[in-house]
Specification:
Order of helices and strands: EEHEEEHHHEEH
Number of helices: 5
Strand order of the largest sheet: 2-1-5-4-3
Oligomer: single chain
Strand content: 15-25%
Largest sheet: 5 strands, antiparallel
Radius of gyration: 18 Å
């Protein structure tokens, strides 16, 4: 099972934090700091798997990929395949690239709601539910179409309210 998905930059600033277990905010911050300290000091030529994380328990493993200035980290238990999770990270990043055309850190900051929605299409309750990029893109685009009409009405402006006063 996937315990958490973390995205942070080289300085350790979180850009996405998603835990699939009930964990307090203070402990989440401790986990983020510990994982950043473990991952950031490793050169890109080393393996992308780390055994154990004191804060997450002895059966947890850290699997990560480093893209430009961002670290994509999945903390999983021993039942998950390391190579499968590496492939899942690649699928998630490709889905982000499709939505934002060469995704960057600013996309994660300004479109955090869409990032969470894309992650929900890939992983739900710690279980992988979709890895097909076409299906992920289709679901996200359908979700955008449902949201778009509601946001169009909210931009009517003050002039539209004059008839109601």
């Amino acid at each position: 099972m996937i315990k958490s998905v973390l995205i942070f930059n080289q300085l350790g600033k979180p850009r996405l934090i998603k835990f699939y277990e009930q964990i307090g905010t203070t402990r989440q911050q401790e986990i983020l700091r510990e994982i950043h300290a473990l991952v950031a000091k490793r050169p890109d030529t080393q393996c992308n798997f780390l055994e154990g994380c004191r804060s997450m328990g002895t059966d947890s493993r850290i699997i990560y990929r480093h893209y430009a200035t961002l670290y994509f980290v999945f903390v999983v238990d021993s039942s998950e395949s390391e190579l499968g999770i590496l492939d899942l990270i690649q699928v998630f990043v490709e889905a982000l690239d499709r939505m934002f055309e060469n995704v960057c850190e600013l996309d994660l900051i300004f479109h955090f709601d869409e990032i969470h929605y894309i992650l929900m299409e890939v992983v739900e309750a710690g279980m992988v539910i979709e890895t097909n990029l076409t299906e992920i893109s289709k679901a996200v685009n359908e979700g955008k179409q449902l949201i778009k009409p509601a946001s169009d009405h909210s931009r009517l402006g003050i002039g539209a309210l004059r008839g109601f006063v």
